[in-house]
Design a protein that fits this description.
Shape: elongated
Number of helices: 12
Protein name: DrugE1 family ABC transporter ATPase
Strand order of the largest sheet: 6-7-8-3-9-10
GO molecular function, one term: ATP binding
Keywords: ATP-binding, Nucleotide-binding, Transport
CATH class of the largest domain: Alpha Beta
Largest sheet: 6 strands, mixed
Distance between the termini: 38 Å
Helix content: 25-40%
Structural class: alpha/beta
Subcellular location: Cell membrane
CATH architecture of the largest domain: 3-Layer(aba) Sandwich
Radius of gyration: 23 Å
Family: Belongs to the ABC transporter superfamily. Drug exporter-1 (DrugE1) (TC 3.A.1.105) family.
Length: about 325
Amino acid sequence: MKTHNLSKIYNGKIKAVDDLNIEIGDGEIYGLLGPNGAGKTTTINMLTTRISCTKGTAIVAGYNIRKDSLMVRKTIGVVPQDLTADEDLTGRENLVMVSQFYDVPKEEYEERIPKLLELVDMTEAANRYVRTYSGGMRKRLELIVGLVHNPKILFLDEPTLGLDIQTRTQMWDYVRQIQKEMDVTIILTSHYLEEIDALADRVSIIDHGKVLVTGSPAELKSSLNGDIVTITFKEKEEAEKMKTIPGVIDTSDSGINTVRIKVANSDDSLPDIINFISSNKLSTMKLTVQKPTLDEVFLEYTGKDIRKEDPEDARKMMMNMRRLRR
């Protein structure tokens, strides 16, 4: 899959996506990260032909999204963050229904559905009504609903939103297994950076509709060139004083009375930092040391914390969680 100057402009002036150029290899798990309003949802909507692009184009599963939107839809699978399965049908009936929507021949879906159910450990629950499923079971069903027509590309939009960490980790195993056994390209968006870190072969961080950086999670973390020491003081002036410490790569504010210090190696630099605090008689409230993570990469390139979601995101998450618990 490849985009070429893909752009979306609303009302003639608001650039939601601005000349986006990314290339995703066959069989790759590709993560899209960005703060709220970065353009990743708009990008996905264009790639899945839910909305038209203003300029540029993309080739998805071998088809041009401008000229061959119907073929694009036939060759991709989409798993939205909202629950879409009919609760008054069984899991198997939902899979059959969606297969028929895609005009999958009966002999094909009768052979494929049992394999998909087995792939996510849902065989025993297949003939139960969806309304009796747990949250994790519903998410697993949604996952294979997107695969009944054997797509070449699978879009996963927040596939584990609202799930507890144990269930989320199990879902990661299912995603890996699906990619391995079906050789499908997976494009993943998630607010859980550990999810992107665990699953994605490569990641693009997007902000203001542009790609800021692309690479494997390991490459992005190593690009920070250092560890992060975060210190909270009793007074704001004390945090400002830490910005004068010699021998560090960089210092920056990280909240009220808190300073974020980048060092080449925290094991070597921490004694000097502690000596500086002691010699200047600063009142330390909290000190943490963090090796490079995708959280730090995200903060470095966007200046924002992905975990600080806006009220609308929080509302959607709570609604999903309530539905999952029914």
